[in-house]
Specification:
It contains 13 helices and 19 strands. By secondary structure, the chain is α/β, with parallel strands linked by helices. The radius of gyration is 25 Å and the shape is globular. It starts with a helix and ends in a 16-residue tail after the last strand.
């Protein structure tokens, strides 16, 4: 350390000892523990000395308890990891509406030739529980790809060429067959709203790498957002600093971010500085107010993003070859391809969690194929297949796939039987469906779990959403059963109080 650093340590110790000599016996909270407010005020001398506390923690002079307390005051501060890190970012490709697993990646050869037959098969979807139904055989052919010989539908020929980098999970189960609650479950680990989402937990647990960009970015389909809207990227009971920021792939990346034309950058900077000064003064006696800390951080971040966010989405700097790789040279793939390329650019700039939605609004604007399965899935697979493969290939050639987890899937799958008396539409299926992962220490060319011969339910190695979340957290360097947030008297966890094991079979 420098002479200045040693002098600051001296002042810190002097302040700490004087407080020990003069302070009254602290009041204890339940279980005889000193409150966080008392702890921080005693050790760091209030918010004014936050910078010193952060410096000392960074130098390893202060322990993890103080680091945790400091982190609560600065929500964007990087955090220590529980495990060696295999991944530093996540890109979640969310196929909103529920893609049919038996028409995409879960090959069921015995179903061919069964079209129209009435079978005894138990299903549970939007229409409730049924014991029989009319079989709708897969509408697309499958063929093997890669060295692993994985069978993939004709819907995803480009992704098929990437299977040696992908781990397929064929036995996923959801706790609800209804869009709203299933979406919340997939995003937050809970069927009810108000809980922090996966991206929030990752940024809470690890902090932000790039202080000039949000740690959690969401890109919606051009047709609109999913059901329940912002509840799917909320920070819940955590500070607002951890919630997702909605990015647009063209034009202004964040609406209402720029200041008025009548205000100069210098004037805006002075206003933010004044506001933060007032907030910091207010916070000296309210150091446990995480919402106030989040407000201070958000002012500063918004100011920084005015210059950094437009640069991050400037895809004009990319080569024509790279644009073509993502399908940006074709009308039907341009939109999703641009978002996938933007996700790669954000990963390069240290953004922790990026979620891209395929499908929005209602009906055939998303993957919810209740009517014409072929019309629906041809449309959405055609829009996403090449961009997804382009993302995987681009990450790999840039050396980023090893440290980036790519997740593909929807809130549930679809049933093997028809929903209506005629037509090929399938109802929701939460009893068994497919998701896949790639990169970030995930094995490639493997498949885990199995559904029955009709794809109606998981019969081998059934896995829940919490297992998926646990896998992601562990690969990011966090213990899913240890990472917690104290709220309303409980140590809340993404995986719940009962905990969850990662999917060890897919971890390299």
């Amino acid at each position: 350390m420098s002479v200045l650093d040693w002098y600051l340590v001296y002042l810190f110790q002097k302040n700490y000892l004087s407080r020990l000599m003069t302070m009254k016996q602290p009041q204890r909270d339940f279980c005889g523990n000193t409150s966080r407010r008392e702890f921080i005020q005693t050790v760091s001398g209030g918010f004014a000395k936050l910078a010193l506390t952060g410096m000392l923690a960074k130098e390893g002079i202060l322990g993890s308890s103080i680091e945790a307390a400091t982190a609560s005051l600065n929500p964007l501060l990087p955090r220590p990891k529980h495990f060696p890190v295999k991944a530093r970012s996540v890109i979640f490709l969310f196929m909103y509406g529920g893609p049919s697993h038996i028409d995409t990646f879960d090959y069921k050869p015995s179903m061919y030739g069964m079209d129209g037959k009435t079978m005894q098969v138990k299903t549970f979807g939007r229409g409730g529980k049924k014991n029989e139904g009319r079989i709708v055989e897969p509408r697309w052919k499958f063929k093997p790809y890669g060295e692993c010989g994985k069978y993939v539908s004709d819907l995803f020929p480009h992704v098929g060429h990437c299977v040696d980098d992908i781990a397929f999970i064929h036995s996923m189960q959801a706790d609800s067959p209804i869009h709203g609650s299933a979406m919340l479950m997939m995003n937050s680990g809970s069927l009810v709203s108000g809980k922090p989402t996966l991206g929030s937990w990752i940024n809470y647990g690890l902090g932000t790498v790039n202080q000039n960009l949000p740690g959690y970015v969401v890109m919606l389909d051009k047709t609109g957002g999913p059901i329940s809207g912002a509840k799917n990227w909320t920070s819940g009971y955590m500070p607002a600093s951890y919630q997702g920021t909605v990015f647009r792939s063209k034009g202004e990346p964040i609406l209402d971010l720029r200041h008025t034309d009548k205000m100069s950058d210098g004037e805006q900077a002075r206003i933010i500085q004044s506001l933060n000064h007032l907030n910091e003064g207010h916070m000296e006696s309210r150091v446990d107010n995480s919402n106030l800390a989040a407000r201070i951080a958000s002012y500063e971040l918004a100011y920084k993003m005015q210059s950094t966010a437009p640069e991050a989405i400037d895809t004009d700097r990319e080569s024509e070859e790279t644009k073509a790789l993502y399908g940006m040279d074709e009308a039907h793939t341009e939109d999703f391809g641009r978002k996938c390329m933007l996700a790669r650019r954000l990963v390069e700039r240290g953004v922790r969690f990026i979620q891209i939605y395929s499908g929005g609004s209602h009906g055939d604007n998303n993957w919810d194929a209740h009517g014409d399965l072929e019309l629906n899935h041809n449309k959405h697979a055609r829009n996403t297949d090449k961009p997804i493969a382009g993302l995987l290939k681009d990450l790999k050639r840039r050396g980023l796939l090893d440290e980036t987890i790519v997740v593909w899937g929807g809130e549930f799958g679809r049933q093997p039987t028809a929903e209506y008396a005629s037509g090929s539409g399938r109802d929701h299926n939460s009893n068994g469906f497919t998701m896949w992962m790639a990169g970030g220490g995930i094995k490639g060319g493997v498949s885990v779990g199995q559904t029955d011969e009709l794809g109606s339910a998981a019969v081998e190695r059934p896995l829940g959403v919490k297992n998926l979340h646990a896998t992601i957290l562990q690969q990011m360097g966090m213990d899913p059963n240890y990472l917690s947030y104290f709220h309303s008297g409980l140590d809340e966890k993404l995986v719940g109080v009962e905990g969850a094991e990662p999917i060890h079979e897919i971890i390299a």
